[in-house]
Every structure is written in C-alpha cells, then in structure tokens.
Design goal:
mainly alpha
Amino acid sequence: MNSRITDRIATGVFYTIAAIMVALLLYLFYFILSNGIPQISWDFLTSPSSAYQAGGGIRDQLFNSFYILFITMIITVPLGVCGGVYMAEYAKPGKITNFIRTCIEMLASLPSIVVGLFGLLIFVNITGWGYTIIGGALALTIFNIPVMVRVTEDAINSVPKEQKEASLALGITRWHTIKTVLLPYAFPGILTGAILASGRVFGEAAALLYTAGLSTPTLDYGNWNPLAEDSPLNIFRPAETLAVHIWAVNTQGLIPDIREVANGAAAVLVIAVLVFNLLARWLGSVIHKKLTAGK
C-alpha cells in the first residue's frame, strides 16, 4: 500500500478515535448537567440531607468532600513529592530500586475496594477510631501516593540534564539544586499529578464506605473547635461524602425524591471537580511564574 495512503488512513483513525472520546465526554457532561442543574438551588446546597422526607440537601456531604480532600492532599503531596525526588535523584539503579518501583506500580493498580477493606482493618478496627475522616483520608492516601511518586519522578527526570549539571558545576549542593532548579522546572508536571489525585479523591466512594462511613452527625457550623464532637473540623467523626451520598441514595434511599437528589448531587460533584481543577491550574500557573521569575 502506498505510504501516503497509509499515512492518511492512520491520521483518519486517530482523528476518529479522538472525536469519539470527545463526543462521549460531552454527552456525559450533557447528561449529568442537564438532569442535575435544574435540581440545584441555594436551599439544596445549604440544607442537611434527609433520610425519609423529600426536599433534603447536600450541605454536610459537600463540606465533607472538600474537607477529606484537603486532609488527604496535606498528607499525600509532601510524601509523594519526597518519594518522587528520592526515586529520581537518590535511588541507585539496581534490584532494590526496581523492587521499590514494582511495589509502587502494584500499589497504584490496587482496586479501591481492596484499599477500603485494608483501611477498615487498620484505621477502623485496629486503631479503634471507628468511621472517621482521618481514617478515610489515610485510606485515600494509600492509593494516591503511588500516583504522586511516579508523576514527580517523571517530572524531575524531564528536566534537561544541562540545567542540573550547570547548577552542580557551580558548586551548589544537590539539595539546593533540587530546591531551586529541579522542583521549579518540574512544578507543572507535579501540579498535574496533584490535580489527578484530587479528582480521584473527590469522586471516590468505595474506599470511603469502609473508612469514613455512611453517615454524618449533626454539625454545628458555628463551632470551629476541632476537638468538639459537633464541630465540622473534627477529624475523628464519621463523614459521608458526596460520592458516597449519591451511591447511598440510589441504592438504599427511602426518600420520595431519590432521582432529583441523586441528579442534583451528581451535577454538583462534576461542577465542583471542574472548578477545583481550573482553580488549581490557575494557582499553579501563578506559583510557577513566581518560582521561575516570570518565565
């Protein structure tokens, strides 16, 4: 076959696949948003959910989702970045490093339900905490750390060797080179990994079923003492997130407006993920410009 014809066929196949992916994504967004946005109102966002009556909201579930995301990323990002720096700069090639890399890849491929059962054993039963926010955050950290490690390692390895060697040739220490040359250059890649991990945390349900629970106690949003039982900041209280709430409403809900609540909650979840991603990318762009002196 003529090479030009082959090239055109390959190009057409790639364009077709890309168009199918975009069409599926657009249809998914259209389906969720067109059914969910009419259900969203200020009262829906600021009212507590109801187990039996119609008209319940998603106030606590929305707060719990962002709070667990915040706690998880506080733990995940430093550990993941440090692990990636170690793998890229300090780990010597050999069997031990290959073994560590294999373990990271296996950890990244674990089903979330398995991580949830592991979290149930460790963070719920052995620690005696019961269903808690911190237990859910630690479980989510387990399968997000491998993503952060691999993304950070790849981002650092993508830095041109000339920049690193020039810094070391000036007598600058390895740590100072990592801090002032490698990490600022690799920051966009690390930020992308953090955003991917955040989206996974925000939409995760299986792991949180066994660690954070299916309920939320009555919260007093005027009490910000993290040690108080009714404080929304208490990390040792159960917390139903938005994704778990959607699952619970659809599978166990007794309320008469199941479809409306599920559609509205799904639309809020999608919009929240989109807004979070856009804000994170904007903030990352600002930080990257400052780290690289506006380049």
